[in-house]
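Holo prediction — nicotinamide-adenine-dinucleotide.
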Amino acid sequence: MTQTIGVGMVGYAFMGRVHSQAWRNVSAFFDLPVTPVMAALAGRSKDKTAAAAARLGWKAAETDWRELVARDDVQIVDICTPGDSHAEIAIAALEAGKHVLCEKPLANTVAEAEAMAEAAAKAAAASGAKSMVAFNYRRVPAIALARRLVADGRLGVIRHVRAQYLQDWIVDPDFPLVWRLQKDKAGSGALGDIGAHIIDTAQFVTGQRLVGVSGLTETFVKERPLAESSEGLGGSRTAEKGPVTVDDAALFIGRMSEGALASFEATRFATGRKNALRIEVNGSLGSLAFDFEAMNELWVDQGEGFTRILVTEPDHPYVGAWWPPGHGLGYEHTFTHEIRDFLEAVATGADPSPSFADGLQVQKVLAAVERSASEESRWTEI
Ligand SMILES: NC(=O)c1ccc[n+]([C@@H]2O[C@H](COP(=O)([O-])OP(=O)(O)OC[C@H]3O[C@@H](n4cnc5c(N)ncnc54)[C@H](O)[C@@H]3O)[C@@H](O)[C@H]2O)c1
């Protein structure tokens, strides 16, 4: 009989729903050494949390995340709350000997991320607890294939990385001041929310780390109606207004550890672009290009121009567990892959990736971009 492991999740809105879907389905598609049991969900409002638990498939509901962490039937804590609570929840869970999966960006500040990485290292030594930060785009089959092509030397020496994450959900100046637009809740704006993803993706695909940056940030709409309610990228507004305290867009250039030059653009003002996480990599032997809005495709050049690879073959990363060639995967599958890899690591004792130390390194890049932008784009080492 397969062993089971109890999971407790905090937060049940956008990420909570997508993570629940992954916890529910992972064992139905992947052969795993351990089967997750969705033991408990934590929120703040009693009725809403109980309703969400019933709908999403969690056995019990708690209104204080501390109670969830303390439960004997919870061995994994999955953090799906805004960045202002990541450090406190993750550190408490690690100190209680629980494994932790934490949404990105790891924290709102470098200091918090340092404390989390330290707690993760201590817990790993003391209790064997595993921890991972949820950069799900690594688990898009086309992105995992891109990494494989670079690692196999198919692109030769990497010279350029061009990464963009383009959305347009706050173009309307009357869109409400949701938590993502407040520094105390989100840490930063487009930079930390979506820029963090392209930093991780660029480093993952190339196997190189950013070593220095020069950045520009801008807040185009300085004041917005206060939010009455919000979930994910939506919200409703009140008549009163308040200040936007984060960047609306962040652009930066950087040098990578093995000599590649990179450029990054993260914005929520790219009208018409909904979730365009794009990366293009140019090497001495060829190139590759990806756009999440066509997530089942990878474009590859080997010297004669780009050709399309439909990344739906059974030998492509993760794809064999799903549908026949050409049938395609969606956003939610990346989370199933993430949870599959995390469970595999927990069960086998391997170190999951990206680790909290990797999350800390991304946090240092974010801080360097902000520092550079505040000093007239001064070159800033990481
Ligand atoms: N990996 C991705 O692609 C991706 C996408 C979106 C969001 N995220 C990250 O996921 C996290 C959550 O974002 P979201 O879009 O799901 O936000 P959301 O606003 O949709 O949901 C946040 C949830 O956290 C709950 N919450 C807030 N503070 C809490 C507390 N102290 N205790 C218990 N519950 C609390 C809210 O009630 C809500 O259920 C953020 O860190 C965000 O950056 C990641």
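READOUT: The first strand starts at residue 3 and ends at 10.
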